[in-house]
Design a protein that fits this description.
Layout lengths: L2 H35 L1 H5 L5 H36 L4 H12 L4 H8 L5 H17 L4
Helix pairs in contact: 1-3, 1-4, 5-6
């Protein structure tokens, strides 16, 4: 069991979200600039260097977003493979909620229900991960 693969899902998801926000911001900037220049951009020969810079940045950001999304998909595959290897369904759910969904321990305890507290859930995960890290592969 490699918990880092599972944790990597949330990290990759955040990188996708940041890249998407950067692209959205650039798209908003380019829309504003296109509106400010109006038809001048369409008929300008050659186009304004500021516009070329914005278009170039937008293309780079799109490429970055695609790259981040591909990394996220790989992280999801590896992480879900790791989660599927956890035999205990309750522990699998706890790991998913904590490391993929990034839920707080208290919310996880509420979702698990029963006598679960945030401390008991956290301790059970710590014991599980210690147990898994001490097991040597055959």
């Amino acid at each position: 069991m490699n918990i880092e693969h599972i944790k990597n899902i949330a990290n990759s998801k955040r990188l996708v979200e940041v890249a998407a926000l950067q692209l959205e911001d650039c798209d908003n900037t380019s829309s504003t600039c296109f509106n400010a220049f109006g038809n001048q951009v369409q008929h300008q020969n050659p186009p304004d260097s500021r516009m070329l810079g914005i278009i170039d940045r937008r293309d780079r950001l799109r490429g970055n977003l695609l790259k981040r999304y591909e990394e996220y998909l790989r992280a999801v595959k590896w992480g879900m493979d790791e989660l599927e290897s956890v035999a205990d369904a309750k522990m699998r759910k706890i790991l998913y909620l904590r490391y993929v969904k990034e839920e707080q321990w208290s919310k996880i305890a509420t979702e698990i229900g029963g006598k679960a507290t945030s401390d008991s859930i956290k301790k059970s995960v710590e014991r599980f991960l210690e147990q898994k890290s001490s097991v040597k592969p055959a």
